[in-house]
Design goal:
147 residues; alpha+beta; 5-stranded mixed sheet; two-stranded antiparallel sheet; 3 helices
Length: 147
């Protein structure tokens, strides 16, 4: 404790706390995820919905960084009726720090926006999964013969 703080602590009539500089307050973290799903009726006149389908994987080779905190990639879904489709997934990340009394909170918000849905042929999905994730391939298409 500094001499100044000691002096004020014992000085008659002092009952307040010192204002702490915002950068000296503890920093807490919070993460928020926001999804903007897409529905579309595609060529086979069936409804495809990114909210009800299961997101299976992302094509790493399609990843593009548009700017700091913004990227896009192609992601692949499987509907409850076993139809494959893909969507463009745009991911935006925002971060900000707010002073809330005793501490500061850093909120990191990640926004997922789906668009540009298209039907995928099973052999195309097999090729993509097979090149990148054998365990995932086995899960959806079964064992294969070793070369």
């Amino acid at each position: 404790m500094s001499i100044f703080k000691n002096f004020l602590k014992y000085k008659k009539g002092f009952s307040g706390e010192f204002d702490v500089h915002p950068l000296e307050k503890p920093l807490m973290h919070d993460k928020v995820y926001e999804y903007h799903h897409k529905k579309a009726v595609l060529e086979n006149e069936m409804l495809y919905d990114t909210e009800t389908a299961k997101r299976i994987f992302a094509d790493e080779s399609s990843l593009e960084y548009i700017s700091f905190g913004v990227s896009t990639q192609r992601v692949y879904f499987l509907t409850p009726n076993r139809h494959w489709f893909s969507a463009e997934e745009r991911i935006e990340t925002e971060s900000g720090i707010t002073d809330v009394g005793e501490c500061r909170i850093q909120v990191t918000k990640t926004i997922f926006v789906y668009s540009n849905l298209r039907i995928e042929k099973t052999h195309r999905v097999k090729d993509l999964i097979g090149k990148n994730d054998y365990e995932l391939y086995k899960k959806y298409f079964g064992e294969v013969e070793e070369a």
